[in-house]
Specification:
By secondary structure, the protein is of the alpha/beta class. The protein contains 10 helices and 10 strands. The strands form 2 sheets. Strands 3-2-1-4-8-6-9 form a 7-stranded mixed β-sheet, with helices on both faces. It has a 3-stranded mixed β-sheet with strand order 5-10-7. α1 packs parallel to α2, α7 crosses α9 and α8 packs antiparallel against α9.
C-alpha cells in the first residue's frame, strides 16, 4: 500500500448530460474513496432525465457535492464538455485545493483510486497530469485503454491535474471537433510538465468511448477525424488503424478509423490545433516509432 498523503487536497468536476443510467453507481464509487475530494462539482449540461434529481439527492447526503446547471447548446459538439468543465472550475474559485480532476459520469473507481494518484503527485513534484487506464470490459482487466499505448498520455475520461498546470494551459480549450482532453495533456507536456498514466490501478468505463450518441463504427470514424485534427502523423495513423482492426468491430473499426482520418485530410477544413502543438505531437510520435521500428526515418546508405 502507498503511504497516505498528508498535504494535497483535490476537487472534482464531472460534466453530465442525461447520465441517470450510470450516475448513481459513479457517485457511490466516489463517496467510497479512502480520500474524499474537498468539493465535487457535477455540471448538468442541459440534462432532461433524472440527472439533476440524482445529484441533488447526493448533495443532501454529502455537502461537498454540488450541482451546477447549464443550458445545453442545441448544436451538440465536443466543445460542450470543455465549457462544462471550465464552468465547474470557475465555481471553485473560493475553494482551497491543490489538484483538480475531470471525471466522466459513466466511470466507477476502486476505493483507493484517488489516494493512489495523490501519492504519485506527492512523489513527483513536476507531475502535471495523471490518471490510470480504463477498462471497458470489466471481465477482462487486461483489456485496458493503455495495454499498448503511450503512458505519457492520460485518457480524457479521468484526468487529474495539478492546479498550477491546469491554469497554465488555460483549462480545456472549447474545440468543436473534439480532442480537448488530448490538447490539455499534450500542451502540459509541451510546457515542461510530466504527464503519466499509472497502470498499477484501473477504473471502469461503462460505455465504449465516443458511443454516447453514435454506433461503434461511427465512433471510430469520428476518432479518425479527431486524430487528423490533432495532427497525428500519417504513418502513425496507419499503424493505429491496423492495431484497431483486431478489436471489435473486427477489421471494420480500423478501416473506419483510417477513413475518418482520410476524409478529414481531404476536407481542407482549417485545423483548430496550434501549429506548434501539432509539430510537437508529430515529433513525439516519430520518436516513438523510431524506438519501435528502428528503420523509420533512416536515410538509405
Amino acid at each position: 500500500m502507498p503511504a497516505r498523503p498528508v498535504r494535497l487536497k483535490y476537487a472534482l468536476i464531472t460534466p453530465a448530460w442525461n447520465e441517470e443510467r450510470h450516475l448513481a453507481q459513479m457517485v457511490h464509487s466516489v463517496t467510497a474513496q479512502t480520500f474524499l475530494p474537498v468539493r465535487w462539482i457535477i455540471v448538468s449540461d442541459g440534462s432532461t432525465d433524472r440527472t439533476d434529481e440524482i445529484v441533488k439527492a447526493s448533495a443532501r447526503q454529502f455537502p461537498w457535492i454540488e450541482l451546477l446547471r447549464l443550458e445545453r447548446d442545441p448544436d451538440r459538439h465536443f466543445a460542450g464538455k470543455a465549457q462544462a468543465v471550465n464552468a465547474g472550475y470557475a465555481s471553485l474559485k473560493d475553494v482551497t485545493f491543490d489538484l483538480v480532476g475531470n471525471l466522466d459520469a459513466d466511470m466507477t473507481l476502486p476505493p483507493d483510486f484517488y489516494e493512489f494518484l495523490l501519492t504519485r503527485f506527492e512523489a513527483i513534484p513536476n507531475l502535471g497530469v495523471a490518471g490510470t487506464p480504463f477498462v471497458e470490459d470489466s471481465g477482462n482487466p487486461g483489456s485496458h485503454s493503455h495495454a499498448f499505448s503511450n503512458l505519457e498520455h492520460v485518457s480524457g475520461a479521468c484526468q487529474l491535474f495539478r492546479r498550477g498546470c491546469f491554469e497554465q494551459i488555460g483549462g480545456y480549450r472549447p474545440i468543436k471537433g473534439g480532442g480537448i482532453d488530448w490538447v490539455a495533456v499534450t500542451t502540459a507536456r509541451m510546457l515542461g510538465w510530466t504527464t503519466r498514466t499509472f497502470v498499477e490501478r484501473t477504473c471502469v468505463h461503462h460505455r465504449t468511448m465516443g458511443t454516447a450518441d453514435r454506433s461503434p463504427v461511427k465512433a471510430r470514424f469520428r476518432h479518425g477525424q479527431e486524430d487528423y485534427y490533432v495532427g497525428n502523423h500519417p504513418l502513425w495513423e496507419i499503424g493505429r488503424s491496423l492495431f484497431q482492426m483486431k478489436h471489435q468491430p473486427l477489421i471494420l473499426g480500423g478501416l473506419s478509423l483510417l477513413s475518418g482520418y482520410t476524409c478529414a485530410w481531404l476536407s481542407g477544413k482549417p485545423n483548430p490545433i496550434p501549429t506548434e502543438l501539432r509539430s510537437f505531437h508529430r515529433r513525439e510520435q516519430m520518436d516513438r516509432m523510431r524506438k519501435l521500428l528502428p528503420f523509420v526515418g533512416r536515410t538509405p546508405a
